[in-house]
Structures
1.
Amino acid sequence: MPKINMVQAINLALRQEMAKDPNVIVLGEDVGVDGGVFRVTEGLHEQFGERRVIDTPLAESGIMGVSIGMALSGLKPVAEMQFDGFSYLMIPQLEGNASRYRSRSQGLWTVPLVVRMPYGGAVRALEHHSESREATYATFPGVKVVIPSGPRNARALLVAAIRDPDPVVFMEPKRVYRAFREDVPEEEETMEIGKAQVVQEGGDLTVISWGAMSHITRQAIDEVQKRRGAKIEHIDLLSIAPMDTDTISNSIRKTGRCVIVQEAPRSFGVSSEITARINDNVLLYLEAPVKRITNYDVVTPYFGRELKYIPDQQRIERGIEETLEF
C-alpha cells in the first residue's frame, strides 16, 4: 500500500473514476495542459484527452453553468474552482439551478456534479486565496458539502462525491495538500457522505474538527493526554452537509464535554450549528459549556499575520484544558 499525499490521492480518485466511467469529465481553469495550479489534475489531460479534461476560460459562473448542462445531459462533471475565494461568482448557478433541479422536477432530474475547490489558509497566499467559507455552501438545501482531512479519506470521499446523484461541493484544505502522507490502497475505496469518523474514542471530552484543523487538533489532543491522562474522543466531521448529528450526540452523551475547532471566523459558522444541535439533542448531558476555538471575525490577514489568526496547537490545548477543568 503506497504512502501518498492528498494531491496524489485526489489525482488517483479522478484517474480511476475517469477510467471506470467515460461520463466523468474534468473541467476548470488550467486543469488540462498545466495540470492545475496545485498539480492535482496532472497527467489527466495526456491520458484522457482534451474532450474529457477541459481548460476553461476564467469564468466561474460559466464553468458552473456548463457543468449543470453536462450533468443534466448524462455526464458527471468534476469542476475545479481554482480557489474558493473566487467561487462566489458561481453561486447564482449553484444555488439557483443545480441545488433545485431535484425538487423543481419532483425527482425527475438530478444534477450529479462535483465542485472541487482548494480552501483555507496558512500557505502564505494572497487575499481571496485563504478563506474558509464552508458554512456559506452548507446553507443551500440540495447541495452536499464535504471536507476531507487527509489523503486516504480525500480519495474515498471524492469517489463517493463523483458517484453521488446530487451536487457536491468538495472543499480541499490546501494546507494539507502536501503536509503528510498516508497509506492509500490502489484498489477502489469509498466512504459514506454524511458520516463523521471517530478518530479516537474517549470518555472525558469530545473534540470535533474538520479539514486542516483535524491534523493540528490530533497533535493538541496527544499533548493534553500526555500531561493530564485524560481520555479524549476525537471526531473528524468530514461532511458538513449533511452533518452526522447522531455521532456527535452519542459522543456527548458519553463525555459530557465538547470542544469544537474551526478555521473559519467565529460568527455564523459550522461550530455554531454544531453547538445548536448539541443543545437541541443532548443539552442535559453537558457538564460544561461547549467551547469553540475559531478564527476571529475579521477579514483573513496577509501571510505575515495569518498564523496568529488561525487556531494553533496552543490555543486548542488551552481550550481543551479549560473545558476539562470546568
2.
Amino acid sequence: MNRKRMTFMIIIVLFLVLPVTASATTQLRGQIVQFGNPVVVEQDEVIQGDLVSFFGAATIQGRVEGDVVGIFSPINVTGGEVTGDTVAIFGPVSLEQAVLNRDAISIFGGLSAGSGTTIDGSAIAVMGSGLDVREAAIAGDRIDVAGFLPGNISGFTVLGLLFAALMVIKHVTAFVVGVLAIVIFPDRFERMADHAFEDIGRKTMIGLLVNLGVFVLIVILAVTVVGAMLIPLVFPAFMLLEFAGNTTMKMAFGRKIAGGMGQKWGSILELFIGTLLFLLLDITIVGKLFTFIFKLIGMGMVVESRLGDQLPRQTQGGLTNES
C-alpha cells in the first residue's frame, strides 16, 4: 500500500514539474512589432509569427516561425532560425551559423553570411554594400545589384546619399534647361536678375499668393466636371513659373557674388554659381527653407514683371531711376 501511494505521489510530482521545466526551456512569444528600440530573440525563445522592427536592430538567436522584416533596422541572425523571409530595407542583414528556410533580402543595406549559415531560398542584395555570402550554403540564386557602398553603413546614411544624388540630378537638369531658357530669352532673364533683390517683401508676398492661389484653383476645378479636365494644365504652368523664378534667383545670386568679388561674369557662369549655392542649401533641412523663400521671391519677380517684359520704375532717395 505504501509502495502504491509512493508511486502515485511520484506521478503527481512529475506532472507538476515537467510542464514547468518545459516552459523554462522554451519560451513562446507571439508576433512582435517594435518601434525605435532593439529587439532580441534569445536562444530559448520561439516567436510564433512575424517579427517587424522599425528603427531598431533585430537580433535573432532563437527561432522565428514567420518573416523577419527590418525597416531602417539591421538584422542579425546568430545561431538562430527563421522559417519565413528575412528582409531588411535601409539596413544590412548579417548571418552567422544561421538557418533560413526562405529568402534573405537586403535593400540599400548589404547582406553578409558566414560559414555554417544555410539559406534554403535566394540571397539578394540591392545596392548598399552588396553581397558577401561566399562561405554560406545557398540553395537558390545569389543576386547582387549595384553593391558599391562600404560595409556597415547605416540605412540613414544610404537614404541621405540617395537624397543628395537626387538633389544633384535635379539641379543639374535645372541648370541645363536654364541655359536653354537664357539663350532663348536673354534680355528678359537679364532684367529680372538685375531687379530680383528690389522690394523683396512684395515679391515674396506675390509668390506666396501664387502658391496658395494654385492650390485653391485646383480645388475649385476639381469640383466641376469641365474644370477637372483643366487640372493637368495647371501643374505644367505652375512648374514653369517655379522654374523661371528659381532660374532668375540663381542668376541674381551669381551676379551678387560676382559683384562682391569685383568681377563681371556672363549669365551662364552666374547661373552655374547660383545653382551650386542652391544645391548646397537644398541638401540641408534648414537650407531648404531658404531656397523656398528664394523661390517665392523669384516667382514674384516673374509675375510682377510679366517674365521680364515690364519692370516697374524704382525710386531711390526720392529720385526716379530712368535707367
3.
Amino acid sequence: MRNLFKALIIFLLAIVIVLSLGYMVQKSPWYRRKLYPLRYEKYIIKYSEEFSLDPYLVSAVIWAESRFVPNATSIKNARGLMQITPETGKWGAELLNIEGFEVDDLYDIDLNIRLGCWYLDKLNIQFDGNIELVLAAYNGGSGNVSRWLKDTRYSKDGKTLYYIPFQETREYVSKVITAYEEYKKLYDLR
C-alpha cells in the first residue's frame, strides 16, 4: 500500500511539472512568435506609414487572413496575404494608378500589402478610426456594417456595434484584436 501511495505522489508531481512546463512554454516569447509569426516587415512598415496605419494591426490582419501565406486563396476568391478580392483589387489599382493590373497580381507580396493597407485606410476614414468597425467591414463588408449601425438591434448610438450579427465577422474581429495585442508585445515595428 505504501508503494502505491509513493507511486501516486510521484505521478501527481510529474503531472504538475509537465503542466507547469507547458504553461511556461506557452507564455514564452519563442512559443508566442511561433503562434504569431511576422514576415514581410519591410512592406508592412512601408505601407502602414504611407496609409497612416498601425503596423501591428496590419500584421494581425495578415495573420488572420492568410497566416502569412502569399499564395492563399479563399473560397470567395480573395487572394494573397491580405485576402483582397478581385473587385477590391481592381478598384484599388485604379485609384492608386497602378498600370497593367491583373487579378493574379494580388499574389504579389508588395502589391497585396499596399492594396490591403489602402483598403484598411479607406475603412478607417469611413468608420472614424473605430478599429472594431474597420475590422468588421474588412471581413463582412462596409455596407453591412453601415446597415448594422443604423439598426437598434446591433447599435444603440449609431457609432458602435454592441453585437455583430455575422458569426464569422464577430469571430474575425475578436481574432484580429487578440493577434494585434500579441504583435504589439512580441515585435518592434516602430
